[in-house]
Design a protein that fits this description.
The complex is a heterodimer.
Chain A lengths: L1 H29 L7 H19 L2 H25 L4 H19 L25 H6 L3 H19 L1 H11 L1 H6 L4 H27 L11 H11 L4 H23 L6 H5 L1 H14 L2 H7 L13
Chain B lengths: L1 E6 L5 H25 L4 H10 L5 H26 L7 H12 L1 H5 L8 H27 L3 H21 L35 H18 L1 H11 L1 H6 L4 H28 L10 H11 L4 H25 L5 H21 E6 L12 H4 L1
Antiparallel strand pairs in B: 1-2
The chains are: A mainly alpha, B mainly alpha.
Keywords (chain A): Cell membrane, Membrane, Transmembrane, Transmembrane helix
Main location (chain A): membrane
InterPro entries (chain A): ABC_transp_permease
């Protein structure tokens, strides 16, 4: 029983960064913007979170720094694609390349240093309940944030007027503009929200998952988060399910490596990436369904006419 | 304050030519700020970064060695991006080219002679093209996003190479180092001018590829097809151009060139397979393609510039103790500024202050008449 609980806990820890980054990107894409810079914003959050936590000794300051750095970094993307109407695919790619380089440079002196770790929740009486206690009341704080965030985004997108407006912008920016909606302003806010989420996800990696700084420690998780959004057909609760499936794959291959299963470790390590491809194929196969779910103006630049 | 974009009636030839230079200047300015923040005199840093790595003849050879894969891959990617097909997995195709091209020298080291090299290069191209076919097939058959699949395959390729050099292909007499046997002499890409430096035939391949693709894109029907399908798929369909065929063509061409770059690097600069054979050439080549305005001849120049950023990064690391990651930062900034400056080709930019009214007063009816 204890082993099951432990495995469930590690799956949750592996799924949380994917979930947060994907939820953020989901809001961005629902507004019609495709930000391929998730990996870059995430790694900036990771290095910023680690650095601030390490220098101040407080993981909570690290957490705030991770969110802030992700948001600031996404602002770069927003200015380029929204104000200057650059190609979103190419700009997102350059955000990722820049983030990987910048984080490597900023983190040079952090390599090999012990980091600050966010403490797990510990409520007297509740956490000690057998089995469910640790699952419900004994995880790291970001886990709870991720669940709350998913619920909040679901409520925002589908139950509020602003959420409806955001979705309408994603489906047709020209119509939204004609109705007097400030398309660019909404998109700015969406992109910055996505950046803050990606930064938080990166902070989770360097403050909870492995409290240390390793170059390129995101290891493609930002890209997997992007794939999760497609897999989830732009629906928050499906992102949640997808993130936990991928968390399970990630943990599964790690456990398989630890048990010494007679399969090359490299093959096991490549499973999350191969799984991403398989999942994308399965979900995109139905062309009509995909077309129906995709925000119609996704990735197209918008220049308001006057 | 905010920006406002005003569409130009036609694309500006002036800014089309100027934008890479403006972008480069902006990168220099941002770089100067960066160096100053790191506590280094920017002038001294630039001297070390951009001038010293190319002040001697042997160093120019090193530049050519770094530029060759960037140009080869960049030229291929330019065809993809022109066609609005997003292959960002060139790094993986590069690695597969290196692996498949190494089959002969690793598994049949006793096979020597003038046939070895051409076969290796051919194998490398086939390997890269075959690996690029996967995202093309998934895109055309299953409508799968090629950006994500081609990128995921990079990780898979890296792990596959890692497994090969630590497992079945490891040199049995190599003291357990993760590497294959040293290639024999007939499997080594010859140097161009051994008297003055290490540059090998890879650079010639890059130049030839650039010229051939330039001819393809500007003088042949296929190139026209690429451009039409890229700018207006609907018009392309009316013209009878097949979008699916184009996806395969662009992916296989760029994959083959990336594969050629991979095997050229392995048999030229390295001489054996190692766990890591590329310092991110496949990703840097994306920047090369854009900096070169997706024009094969521009890409030659851009490849040389980006190669210099690699050498400069190494130089500042050894001379000033700054992380060589500074090269990646420069490359990222350069791409950012290029994309930003490209806006000037299609738009005029106007700054609007807070004070100015949002809309200009509409002309009164009497004035119009």
């Amino acid at each position: 029983m204890d082993i099951t609980v432990n495995i469930l806990l590690t799956i949750a820890t592996a799924a949380t960064p994917l979930l947060i980054a994907a939820i953020g990107e989901l809001v961005v894409e629902r507004s019609g913007v495709l930000n391929l810079g998730v990996e870059g914003m995430m790694i900036m959050g990771a290095v910023g979170g680690f650095g601030a936590g390490y220098l101040t000794g407080s993981p909570w300051i690290g957490l705030l720094a991770a969110i802030a750095l992700g948001a600031v970094f996404s602002l770069l993307f927003a200015v380029m694609t929204l104000s200057l109407a650059t190609n979103q695919v190419a700009t997102g790619l350059s955000l990722t390349l820049l983030g990987l380089g910048l984080s490597g440079m900023m983190g040079t002196s952090f390599v090999g240093q012990p980091g600050a770790r966010l403490p797990n929740l510990d409520i007297p009486g509740l956490t000690a309940i057998p089995v469910v206690g640790r699952l419900l009341f004994g995880q790291d704080p970001i886990f709870y944030i991720s669940i709350a965030l998913t619920a909040a985004v679901m409520w925002f997108l589908f139950k509020t007027r602003t959420g409806l407006t955001l979705r309408s912008i994603g489906d047709s920016h020209t119509s939204a503009h004609a109705l007097g909606i400030h398309v660019i302003r909404y998109r700015y806010l969406a992109v910055i929200f996505g950046g803050a989420c990606a930064g938080l996800a990166g902070g989770h990696l360097s403050l909870v998952y492995t409290p240390q700084w390793v170059e390129n420690m995101t290891a493609g998780r930002g890209w997997i988060a992007l794939a999760l959004v497609v897999f989830a057909s732009w629906r928050p609760w499906r992102v949640l399910a997808g993130a936990y499936i991928f968390g399970a794959v990630w943990i599964g291959q790690l456990h398989a490596q630890a048990f010494g299963i007679p399969v090359p470790s490299q093959l096991l390590s490549s499973l999350p990436y191969l799984a991403t491809i398989v999942v994308l194929v399965l979900i995109s196969r139905n062309k009509r369904l995909t077309m129906m779910n995709t925000p119609a103006s996704l990735g197209q630049p918008f220049v308001p006419d006057r | 304050m905010r920006l406002e974009l005003i569409k130009r009636p036609q694309r500006s030839m002036l800014f089309s030519a100027l934008s890479p230079f403006i972008a480069f200047m902006l990168t220099i300015i941002a770089g100067a700020i960066l160096f100053a923040l790191l506590g280094v005199n920017p002038l001294k840093a630039f001297q070390i970064y951009f001038i010293e790595p190319v002040s001697q003849v042997w160093q120019l050879h090193e530049l050519a060695i770094k530029a060759a894969p960037l140009i080869l891959i960049g030229v291929g990617l330019s065809v993809c991006y022109r066609a609005n097909i997003w292959n960002i997995g060139a790094e993986g195709q590069f690695i597969l080219g290196g692996i498949v091209g190494s089959i002969i020298p690793v598994l049949f080291p006793q096979f020597e002679g003038p046939l070895v090299l051409p076969l290796m290069l051919l194998f490398g191209m086939v390997g890269g093209a075959a690996y690029a076919t996967v995202p093309a097939l998934l895109k055309t058959r299953f409508n799968t996003n090629e950006i994500l699949t081609s990128l995921m395959l990079v990780y898979v390729a890296q792990l596959f190479l890692d497994w090969l050099v630590r497992g079945p292909w490891r040199d049995p007499k190599g003291f357990n180092f993760p590497q294959t046997i040293q290639f024999n002499d007939s499997a080594i890409l010859p140097e161009l001018m051994p008297a003055s430096g290490r540059a090998n035939w890879g650079f010639v391949f890059a130049l030839v590829a650039a010229v051939l693709v330039w001819i393809l894109m500007s003088r042949m029907l296929k190139g026209f097809e690429v451009r039409v399908l890229g700018s207006s798929p609907r018009a392309g369909r009316f013209a009878g151009f097949g979008i699916n065929r184009m996806v395969f063509f662009a992916f296989m061409l760029s994959g083959a060139l990336a594969g050629l770059a991979g095997i050229s690097e392995v048999s030229g600069a390295i001489g054996q397979l190692q766990p890591v054979i590329s310092p991110g050439y496949g990703f840097t080549a994306i920047i090369v393609a854009f900096l070169g305005r997706l024009n094969p001849l521009g890409i030659v120049a851009a490849g040389l510039v980006l190669a210099l950023t690699y050498l400069g990064g190494e130089a500042v690391q050894s001379a000033l103790g700054i992380s060589d990651k500074v090269a990646r930062v420069f490359q990222g900034m350069l791409l950012f500024f290029v994309l930003g400056c490209d806006t000037l080709i299609h738009y005029r930019i106007r700054l609007i202050g807070f004070a100015t009214p949002k809309l200009e007063a509409a002309p009164k009816l009497e004035e119009v008449h």
